[in-house]
Amino acid sequence: MHDALHLSARAFLTLGLLTVAPAAGAHGAFPAVRQLVADPSDANRLWARAAHGVLTSDDQGATWRWLCTAAAGYGGTEEPTLALTGNGTALMAAFHGLLASSDHGCGWALPDALLVGSAPGVAVDAKNADRVLVLISGGAGGGAFESSLWQSLDAGATWKALSPSLDTSTLFTGVGLSSSDASRLYLTGSKGGKSVVVRSDDAGKTWQAPLELATAGTAQVAAVHPTNPDVVYLRVGGWGTSGSEGAVLHSGDGAKSFSEVLRKSAPLMGLTLSPDGAKLFAAYGNPRGGVKLDEAALGLYSATTADHAFTRVHDTPVACATFVAGELWACTSQFDDGFEIGRSSDDGKTFAPVMELAALDGPLECAPSSTVGTTCTAAGWDDVCRDIGKCTDTTPAEESSDDGGCGCRSARGRAGGALAVLWLALLAALRRTRR
Predict the structure, then answer these.
(1) pTM, whole model, 2 decimals?
(2) pLDDT-derived band of residue 418, with 50, 70 and 90 as boundaries?
């Protein structure tokens, strides 16, 4: 019976990829949560960045509200960085610049006219969340680049250029800061086709000569040790239809040298340190969309920072890992774990469900004149309902009742919703037979 279920499920999955996945195309990527951030000013408020929108909760994940990606300034194929400052201001570092929301997600705007352009990196001080850095970078023509580093000391209200003009021969791609030494900063980038990292000991006034990394792939500053500014971790790699590689690099001497401590043939989508800096967690996930990877490598890996002896503690895809009030939370997989966000009290060995993909409670309620009110449409919410399997209404359009915008009353909606729900069920059944 298990063999028959495997066969029928796989056959339907093939059909599902042709019939359900195009609905996700409205947002450009497979619906999934890619980042989770806790509000340092409010223990109850959580934020999540997903391919299908920004999600926010004001009750520690019991309920979630949705707002469209366009309101926060990014497209469904982007992987921007979401950050929260000390007063609860949400920042989205996207391709078109840094957008900020100080009203829990309803209004989004550029906090400074000079912060326009690609914002590949943003970093918030873990010990002083009013201190924020943002990297602005882009092409200048002729093979040169224009990059600048900005700092806010008032939770994103005002900004000042720390490094108004960085090396024009380097395309900078990431920024990191030390919470134990405010003068220590790190930048990653690409120079001459090679990944590099640079360090500043005077808060960005001057930078040391770049260190070329002996590894392929784009590097990002993932974590700086909370008490030792010389200990820094980089997340390196990329993914696509030709293959995926994800590696963790470690430096104990302030980026004078790096050693590779973990590498897998899968996308490294998250890397985080425990609040005390004693443990490191690497999240290998599945972005889907035809990405080639080693399924046996997917999961959550854990090691102490003393020995970097990694073990896989969770064997299903994990797209992010972070600590909320001292507890490990992760972007898990609806199709492998049965939920999209989970929390763990045993360092990732087991997770308790926090949010399921189809459990969104509706759009974020905002004034019609707000960014969300003028940008996010009812049709967009219906698209999301189809993508996540929440659309289950099969009644004719003229007979459909008001269900908060998730009736999906068109013929496309009825078919897409039914297929999505059945697809989820068969994926869950297939998962059970594998175990």
Answers:
(1) 0.86
(2) very low
